[in-house]
Amino acid sequence: MGKNAIKDEHSGSLGKSLKTLFSAIVIPVALVVGILIFYFVMGNSMNFVEGNPAKGALPGNYLGIIYKGGFIVPILMCLLITVITYSIERFITITRASGRGSVVSFVRKIKQFLSNGDIDGAMASCDKQKGSVANVIKSALVKYKNVETETGMDKEQKILAIQKEVEEATSLEMPSLEQNLVILATITSIATLMGLLGTVLGMIRAFGALASAGSPDSIALATGISEALINTAFGIGTAAFAVIMYNVFTTKIDKLTYSIDEAGFSIVQTYAATHKNN
Predict the structure, then answer these.
(1) Is residue 106 situated within a structural domain?
(2) Disulfide engineering: 242 pairs with which of 49, 52, 187, 193, CB 3.0-4.6 Å?
């Protein structure tokens, strides 16, 4: 048991280190990828009139049009790639946290085992289910069995000990579920602001060019404004995607938390109903 505990602890520490490393490198890598796509894909001469970006993008060539949005575009692309990457990572992590099969069915089985007084069966079910929910419930069940043999505590103290174990186990699991969600929440605001900044800079550039030309050119002005608005569209689209994914993941985490609370309450109630006061 000691060797297994040490092995689990090392595995957990390694997993946390890898997750921390992953979180640290995602944004720099996304920025590099965004810059490369901006210059070598969108900035390809095939996307522009006579191969010259200064003469504008070819009609209907959206890669060239986006390229004309300016240096803000790689930053917006970095934000979009970051959202996509963290969304995939969170989806995998939260799916694993749910364990094998339906969490609702698992909690229902646990409650059935508890109603039959089969604590060992409930623990075996946790081993099969795996995931964060099963880990918390198993910790509470282990505490349940331990306090049964504890002679120095009365019934109320034992119930409080079980409740505390559920809370502590939950607090250990929740950070891994909520990791990186704050970045998605931040991007929802930053992407919109960066898009607006790019548009404002593009408008300044377009009107400045119009002023230096000495004569009004409605076509050039319209082209400049349309290129500037690319940043706004890009930023709003990225922000909308980030908001959607953030809400999806927080909803999934709330469901897992509710399942943990429901199972924990059942464990406490089972102990209270089946054990007399000392």
Answers:
(1) yes
(2) 187
Residue closest to 264 by CA, chosen among 256, 252, 275: 256
Q: How many Cβ atoms from other residues are within 10 Å of residue 260's Cβ?
A: 25
pLDDT tens-digit series, residues 218-277 = 666 777 777 778 889 999 999 999 999 999 999 999 998 898 888 888 888 888 888 766
Asked if residue 194 lies in contact with residue 231, where contact means CB atoms within 8 angstroms, the answer is yes
Q: Where do runs of H (alpha helix) occur along the chain?
A: 2-37, 62-67, 72-98, 103-115, 119-129, 131-148, 155-178, 181-213, 218-274
The residue segments making up the domain with residue 136 are 79-274
Q: How far apart are CA 142 and CA 122, in angstroms?
A: 10
Single-letter residue type at 199: T
Q: Into how many domains does the chain fold?
A: 1
Q: How far apart are CA 274 and CA 191, in angstroms?
A: 56
Rg (the chain; Cα; Å) = 28
The Cα 218–Cα 228 span in angstroms is 15
DSSP 8-state class, residue 48: B
For the question of whether the overall pTM of this predicted structure is more than 0.85, the answer is no
Q: With respect to residue 58, please indicate whether it lies within any of the assigned structural domains.
A: no
DSSP string spanning 104-173? HHHHHHHHHHHHTT-HHHHHHHHHHH-HHHHHHHHHHHHHHHHHHT-SSS-HHHHHHHHHHHHHHHHHHH
- Tell me how long the chain is: 278
Cα separation, 235 vs 77, whole angstroms: 9
Distance in angstroms (rounded) separating the CA atoms of residues 217 and 9: 69
Q: In whole angstroms, what is the distance from residue 41 CA to residue 231 CA?
A: 17
In a domain, 120, yes or no: yes
